[in-house]
Amino acid sequence: MSTPKPVMLVAKREFMTRMVTKSNIISMVVMVVAIAVLAIGAKLLLPDDAEPEATRIGVDPAASQLTDFLEGSLVAGPGGVAVTELDEDAGRAALAAEGDERMAAWVTGTPEAPTVLFEDAPDPELVAVVEQAARDAVQAEVVAGLGGDPADVQTALGSVAVSVDQVNAAEQEFDPGQWIVAVVLISLLLFALIGSGSMIAMGVVEEKTSRVVELLLSTIRPGQLLAGKVVGIGAYGLFQMVVLGGALVGVVTVLGLFPELEVNLGLAFLLMLVWFLLGFLVFALLFGGFAALVSRQEDIGSVTTPLMFALFVPYYVTMFLVPAQPDSTLSKVLSQVPLFAPFMMPTRAAAGVLEPWEMPLALAITAATIPALVWISGRVYRRAVLHTGGRMKLSEALRSTPA
Amino acid sequence: MSSLEIDRVSKTYGTVRALRDLSFEVRAGEIFGFVGSNGAGKTPAMRIMLGGRAADAGEVRGNGAPLDLEARRHVGYMPEERGLYPKMKVRDQLRFFAQLHGMSDTEAAEAVDRWTDRLGVGTRRGDAVEKLSLGNQQRVQLAAALVHNPLVLVLDEPFSGLDPVAVDVMSDVLRERAAAGVPVIFSSHQLELVERLCDRVGIIRAGSMEAVGSIDELRRTGDAPWLLSWNQRTDPAAVERALAGVSGLTVTPLPGRTDAVHVVALPGSPGAEQSALRAVLDVGEVTQFAPDLPSLADLFRDVVSQETTVDEEVAA
After folding, report:
1. I need a labelling partner for A296 at 20 to 30 A (CA). Which of A192, B182, B195, B303 fits?
2. What phi and psi, each to the nearest 5 degrees, are found at residue A107?
3. In a shared domain, residues A75 and A124
4. Is A386 part of a structural domain of the chain?
């Protein structure tokens, strides 16, 4: 029999036995629904930043020359200030009113000495706005007295713009939006890799425990069995990622959540799928080879723990190192290390700090390690998979001839 | 494939020599019974036949050619440690095995239906294997060995755990496959069954074949004692005196019987048992006089008792 056919048969079995179970279908539906519900909930709860509301202020008709300066305030928050002329009684009533009638403050007095009335504790920001408006009013009067045009002064003041720069570029702030996207994506990647890796490990040990492996290996080669497992479970993991990650990206895009986010979600997700595939191959082979060393489900932990570290360490390093120093030498070097690359690369790509050569090089290095891992895992697997009883030592599996 | 040959196969596990120069042949169309005490090396031998383990030395041949992966696709194997996917449905599982052995989808589906019906688990095709009783799991295991129309059958303890009806079905299947020209080898501790079913038997001890042949051949090797019995009107004491007068004869009383003895002619006195018969006829009436051929169980005990050190460590 040619090699691909048994591999595909094994892969198909691995895929189908995981897909076509009630628990799988239910959990997938539940997770997709949960993502949609969360996204809709977020849409309803998050403040709608697109049209910030103006702060409403009542102004005594006696102080009406402040009105223009209040409404044109440069120091007011987003949405600016909306001014309504109200006499003292109406102003006081409006401070206690509800809804559209409500005023945040009521201003009276002369521009030189305005008085701001609040219902409760004064809002310092609003006081500052009034103070600035009063200064502007006084200044306008003085400028007019000197024969100038107060409007020109206002325009000139409004056009002042300060540019900010810093000497040390590495201390540049990582955009929190990008950071959140990156953390969500690498967390998804981490869980997908842990999930698929555990599935491989459990599958290998299940075949050993149930002894079905002996029957399988009377017809196919150990390498074909391991390859089929990796392909089948990989396809299943990829399917889960596409469904769940796709649902996430889809609802975020459709509902227009996080409009200020300057990340191309679709591209970031696609990039993550590529890295999932590479990362999956690396870790799946390790999980498969290591799991063959033990014969019972209870012993899986002893062989997968080091691999869990190999997943969590790059994950945490990425999460904390990349936002702090996306462009440092350490980040660049670690990005090229196979176990780190699947986490570092998509994150740094999302931050937009990659040199053009970095991504292709990292992909090439990781891809190049895969044949070596195939060889090592295949060797360990072949030697250990028919070994029963206690745990086989890794060195023993690498050294000995097939039992 | 018309024969299966095991040629001087040796295998050592760690410090334990599980197989030493094991050689025998299973001919086309014959059922070969493979017996031996626990740890004698039956399972390692069968595993090596199926290529799960490589032999240190020697070769397994099918029809004269080394039994490689391609040839092993035509072998039906039932491992000693039963192995099926517990959570997979019987039908899906058997189809998977059939396809792994090279059958097409439709061939596999048809064969699965046929064999599950034949083995009495047709109504359980849609159930996960773990939901079946052990006996039914055993039937499914046999179906997994048969489903791809194998040209050689290698079955490790196929009868253990089966009810009498299933034993009959299994026996019929083995006879039928053998009649179709398939060499069948199975191991068992149920020696009456082996005696009834097998054309030839091999007794393995400490990793090498002690005796091979048809049951009759094995029983006739060596000098079988003659059973001599008499009726109630005959005085045992008179018989004893009469036999004592025959020279060149060993007389062995049978435990719990006063009406019969075993007599064996000593080397150098051929025909002494005939003189014993004449002597007893003079003093009484003989009811039975015949060579008492050993049962397979007796042969087995003989072979096993030769073991000076029982190799407890040999992996079963």
Report:
1. A192
2. -110, 135
3. yes
4. yes
User: B16 — contact with chain A (CB < 8 Å)?
Assistant: no
The answer to whether residues A123 and A198 belong to one domain is: no
Give per-residue pLDDT as tens, A13-33. 999 888 888 888 888 889 888
Contact B51 A221 (CB under 8 A): no
The single-letter code of the amino acid at A252 is V
Residue-range definition of the domain harbouring residue A249: 4-45+171-399
Instruction: Please indicate, yes or no, if residue A351 is contained in any of the structural domains.
Output: yes
Q: What is the CATH number of the domain that holds A139?
A: 3.40.190
Q: Show which of A156, A181, A203 is a domain's final residue.
A: A156
Q: Report pLDDT digits (tens) over A282-326.
A: 888 889 888 888 888 888 888 888 889 989 999 999 888 888 887
Percent of residues, chain A, with pLDDT higher than 90: 5
Calculate how close chain A gets to B75, using CA atoms only, in Å. 8
Q: How many CB atoms lie within 10 A of CB A60?
A: 20
- For the entire predicted model, the pTM comes to 0.71
* Statement to judge: residues A209 and A229 lie in one domain: yes
Chosen domain end from A121, A156, A191: A156
Three-state SS at A117: strand
* Whether residues A140 and A279 fall in one domain: no
| All structural domains of chain B | 3-220 (3.40.50.300), 226-291 (3.30.70)
Same domain, A81 and A217: no
Q: Which residue of B has its CA nearest to A217?
A: B52
Cα distances (Å, whole numbers) of residue A114 to A212, A239, A247, A307: 89, 66, 55, 69
